[in-house]
Design brief:
InterPro entries: Cro/C1-type_HTH, Lambda_DNA-bd_dom_sf, ScfR_C, TransReg_Diox_bact_type. With about 425 residues, this protein is of the alpha+beta class. Among the domains are: about 110 residues, lambda repressor-like DNA-binding domains (434 Repressor (Amino-terminal Domain)); about 60 residues. It contains 18 helices and 6 strands.
């Protein structure tokens, strides 16, 4: 059954689910067959997927087993199925040689629903913790607030150590000077305490663990987008009228800066949805195999629009798990949609070999590249730099670059992939000529 399409393969597992439900209830095959008015031999053929079943008989079996008919005919729901598929992909990427049997997900869900739910929940939990860890790791390397706080703390520590050294080495110090050094010790200790408390508050979450990586406005807004899977059905159907509802349900919007930034980003989402509606982009993307190169005409010259809309497609509709990065002309990242296996730093620049930065030198010219990451993953990337605002006649426009990434769909061209990384501060490629 591994080679069958998902729908056909899952339909063929109805018999397995009937058997598992029967065994879970402790029913004999003959007893169930008698309850629904068929022979035990015919039920045996059904349970071994040798007879199709539907309609009246399926409903009768569901009643006898005290379950909904859908639980027997549909198998693992789409969300659980997608989560387990994602877990299998991440396992293959992170644990070489381990190949989960993705063709038997429905069988696993039917036989062990508790364990299946646990695996899915753990996968989501791991992804959330990885996002928190990456954000904190990023912040340790590039957060200007943290850098300044650490500099001030180290200065206080140095002052305390110097003062204590003088007091320890010179027991005959004049009383007035000794009093002055004691006062300096007290003041520096107070400064150190205040700075350490402030730095801790910079990392702490106000309410929940999930908010621990979201203390700045951009992090809070990115958390809003991540929680929605970067897809907002309300805005897709209602346009700008749906923005307030999205913001009202989001955490952290009591902060005026976060609220304003969220509104700006959702306004752009609404504009994108109006210019390239979901009922246009989704069918076209499916037909094109979600290849941005085959969809450029949909943007009527706006390539970045196509890339952003592809990153906003719902995974439940069959779209790949795209990543997205947007930066300004200085290379500062303005927005990102992260992938568990493709690190896009929140603070500081990414890899200088990404096409995201290369296109800044050629505004309006789309670029595509294949990237080979140090961990072994291969990704396709599409990027373009475009003006987003005009500053006046005879002046250069304000330019932003947009890059869409996705796991490579095949091994074709893998040998020509650019050996890139997540950014120099995290990349293990010591001999890279672009390394800072």
């Amino acid at each position: 059954m591994a080679g069958l399409p998902d729908g056909m393969r899952r339909a063929q597992l109805t018999g397995n689910r009937i058997r598992e439900r029967r065994l879970a209830r402790g029913m004999k095959q003959a007893a169930l067959a008698e309850a629904v008015g068929i022979s035990a031999s015919y039920l045996n053929l059904i349970e071994h997927n040798r007879r199709k079943i539907g309609g009246k008989l399926l409903n009768a079996l569901a009643r006898a087993l005290d379950v909904e008919p859908a639980a027997l005919s549909e198998g693992a729901d789409a969300t659980l199925y997608d989560t387990l598929q994602a877990s299998a992909r991440d396992t293959r990427a992170g644990l070489g040689g381990v190949l989960p049997e993705t063709a038997r997900i429905d069988e696993l869900a039917a036989r062990f629903p508790g364990w299946t739910g646990l695996i899915a929940a753990q996968h989501k939990r791991i992804a959330g913790l990885e996002a928190v860890a990456e954000g904190l790791r990023d912040r340790l390397g590039h957060d200007p607030v943290l850098a300044e706080a650490m500099h001030e703390m180290l200065s206080s520590v140095a002052a305390i150590r110097s003062t204590a050294d003088i007091l320890a080495r010179d027991p005959d110090l004049d009383a007035a000077w000794r009093g002055r050094f004691h006062r300096n010790l007290h003041e520096e200790a107070e400064r150190l305490s205040i700075r350490a408390t402030a730095m801790l508050a910079h990392f702490e979450a106000p309410d929940t663990e999930e908010a621990g990586a979201s203390s700045t406005p951009i992090e809070t807004v990115e958390a809003l987008f991540e929680a929605a899977g970067h897809h907002f059905p309300e805005i897709e159907t209602q346009g700008r009228a749906g923005i307030e509802g999205v913001i009202a349900r989001a955490a952290g919007m009591e902060d005026s800066a976060s609220h304003a930034l969220a509104r700006d980003m959702l306004e752009r989402y609404a504009q994108d949805a109006a210019r390239l509606p979901l009922d246009v982009i989704l069918p076209a993307a499916r037909e094109a195999g979600f290849d941005p190169g085959r969809l450029l005409m949909l943007g009527q010259g706006d390539v970045a629009l196509v890339l952003r809309r592809l990153a906003s497609l719902p995974l439940s509709a069959g779209a790949p798990d795209f990543g997205l990065a947007v930066c300004d002309a200085a290379g500062a990242l303005l927005f990102r949609r992260r992938l568990p296996s493709f690190s896009i730093p929140r603070f500081g620049p990414g890899c200088p070999l990404w096409p995201l930065y290369a296109v800044l030198a050629r505004p309006g010219q789309p670029e595509a590249a294949r990237l080979d990451l140090p961990q072994g993953g291969v990704f396709d990337a599409w990027a373009v730099a475009q003006p987003v605002a005009q500053t006046g006649f005879g002046r250069a426009p304000v330019v932003q670059a947009t890059m869409l990434v996705a796991p490579a769909s095949s091994d074709n061209g893998a040998e020509a992939a650019i050996p890139a990384g997540p950014g120099c501060h995290l990349c293990p490629r010591e001999a890279c000529p672009a390394r800072r």
